[in-house]
Sequence to fold (883 residues):
Amino acid sequence: MTTRFTVNGKTVDVKAEPDTPLLWVIRDEVGLTGTKFGCGAALCGACTVHLDGSPIRSCITPVSAVAGKKVATIESLPHNNTHPLQKAWIAHDVPQCGYCQSGQLMSAAALLRSNKNPSDADIDAAMSGNICRCGTYGRIKAAIKTAAAEMRKA
Amino acid sequence: MSHHTPSESTSRQAASGVSRRGFLQTSAVASGGLMVGVNLAGLSAEALAAGTLHTPNAWVHISDDNTITLLSARSEMGQGVYTSMPMLIAEELNVDIRQIKVAIAPPNTKLYGNALLGGPQLTGGSSSVRDGWEKLRTAGAQVREMLLTAAADQWKVDRASLKAENGVVTGPNGKRATYGQLAAAASKLPVPEKVALKDPSAFRIVGKRTKRLDTPAKTNGTAEFGIDVTLPGMVYASLEQCPVIGGTVKSFDASKAKTMPGVIDVVQIPDGVAVVADTYWHAKKAREALSVTWDEGAGATLNDKAMLEGIRAGSPTDKVLPLKAVGDADAVIKAASTSGAKVVKAEYVMPLLSHSPLEPMNFTAHYHDGKVDLIGPTQWQDNAQGTVAKLLGVKPEDVSVKTTFLGGGFGRRIDIDFIIQAAQISKAVNKPVKLLWTREDDMTHDFYRPQSVHQMAAALGDDGKPTAMTFRMVSQSVTGRVFGLPLEAQDPLMTEAAIAGYEIPATKHDIVKHEAGMRVGYWRSVSHALNAFANEGFIDECAVAAGKDPYMYRMSLLTKQPRFANVLKMAAEKSGWGTPAPAGRFRGIALMEGYDTYMAQVAEISVKDGVPVVHKVTTVADLGRMVNPDTVEAQIQSSIIFGLTAALYGEINIDKGRVQQTNFNSYRMLRMNEAPAIDITLVQSNEKPGGIGEPATALIGPAVANALFAATGKRVRRMPFTAENIKTA
Fold:
């Protein structure tokens, strides 16, 4: 009774019950703890990962739903912080407590994959599912624009 | 904040450096401490692996390979102390802030206590920089001097011919040694009693915009929060607590839960019934299968509306604690009423609030061999150590505390209920345990910001200026619960910003403590938020009654208050006060001093569907000398969003003792699409540093309320600013 899918390009066979939320499988069984738990009800976005390239809330996604699919977590971004979003996050010193930032970055990465020149409204629409209790919204928005500009040049 | 702890006299003496020698002689303790200190992205472990670690004092560790580790004795909860604390040390030690490692200090009240808060090793009260300003620079300078002395002794040269720069001591004839090469010798020297500190004009690190040292770990998922801790053999716990805070277990049936997958044990602790399992999800699922009968206790009748009525009724009946009186304000107001002069009276009301940091409460504990290891996010290390030791019957020195990054604090993690619970569960199952609360646990078992009622009155003279003002605040004391402050004693954490800067000939300020029965806690900016809402709304009302512009009216009452007047004037200028606002936009202004920081804000709003939309917030802050101006701005931005979230949405309701809000759908958070543009101006000042982690939180509410009045003519004296509260205002 295992579920097979890929995490950040690596195939995993996990033994968690099929109804176990993907979040806890990623964190406790696969051992990737960058993805966070904030609400357990898809209200805060801290658990955002990509499923076949689209952002999902892993806290309410049963692992059975990702069988045979591709999951990408914050750890799919370069460890040395060379992704344009990570560079922009550092340039703007976005994080405060940092707890929501994995989810913020994954939501932003999904946005920039489809839209390399997002307007304020585009950013609001893509990012308003992600709560930042420290209130880093202004810096997140500025950093997304910086990253988008770099990606347009590339 | 100057409240007393039981050990205040001893700890304050040590922490304030009255006994500098004693302070430093005990520093050897800290070298062992570093080894248990949780590090920033594995840095202290690297430092330890790199070579012998020397401890020239409690704040600086230098290894033979010149790895320099600077300690933060304050928890990193977003406010940037893992950068600002080392910056203060590095300034005098003369090392590159990018070349050092940071580690968090272990619990040690004598070494790492917070003198500004009366001694405890506690992160809060916007105090880290203010407490560390001289202490940490002195620590850096002492180590620098010890390194220089070591080099002079070794090279047999005049000490005055040596320089300590960028981690290297240099001398005549090309003499050169890294701090690491000198550290062993330096650490054997006596610590200099008196050291010269740089004149601030010579600062090369302090006051410069500096990139946070913890950002890279927070952009690639490697920053370790409490929820991320793992220990060999660790199991997971989910704790069922009484839906009424303070209730206790009468009986429980775990037979079904025990048959669920992965369950290892079900144990009762004083706060409830814990399910322990091989994964978090197994523990949580099995917890849902528990059947618990509760003795709900005294809290079972609590209702927030009744509590508020009790607080309001408390004002004339409970003991009045005078704060300050000038002249006979009551008599002036009474005379004005009889003579037909203008009298303004108003009541301001604040609701209960939850902290709701994004990382739910959690801690990891391992009870073994009469010792306890505690790892996780806390704002109060020495209390965690001492209290767990007492409750588990072990010696304090046998309780280690490693502090991880905090996924938000805001005052919630000053309390240690979840740490005690983790330790008790670990002892019960004899295994390392990670206890993790759900969001619902977190929201329904908080230590809530107390409700408050402010009763305000003023008489206005012929020129419209107040001739007298009275201020009464009625609320529940947090300090009574946390520090055992007697009911009859004034609580300094209820009086913050109660006395505003305005020049009024007769004033009377008093406080009434009313025990509403709620479990209350310190919430970002504490009583500043309560008192500033009343004061800044009320002075606006006086301006309106006097027929004056709210900004000009305030200025006319600040003739001898240059720092207040300056920030107010600058905020007016920056916000375009006095010029027409864009169509449909309205402005409100507010002013406060808190944590030695002077601040003014102007909120620019429109009204849509009966509620305010905040477009722009202009803030001017004079907080004296700054350590990291970029962090200062970040904290102002953060505080405005935090305070605005409360002002627009925040309210916890209680019925039959049960908290009604359980998650972010019913306890709403401000989101990106609702976040205003924030324009910040920092006043360049040579005054002593002020705190900046909190004050802006308290100002945004009154600024928006005053803008709402400008927009609607409705004076909203009650948070949050919902359509209902505005309509009934």
In short: Chain A touches chain B through 62 residues (CB under 8 Å). Chain A is about 35% helix and 15% strand. Chain A has two domains: 3-76, 84-153. The beta strands of chain A are 3-7, 10-14, 48-51, 54-57, 70-72.
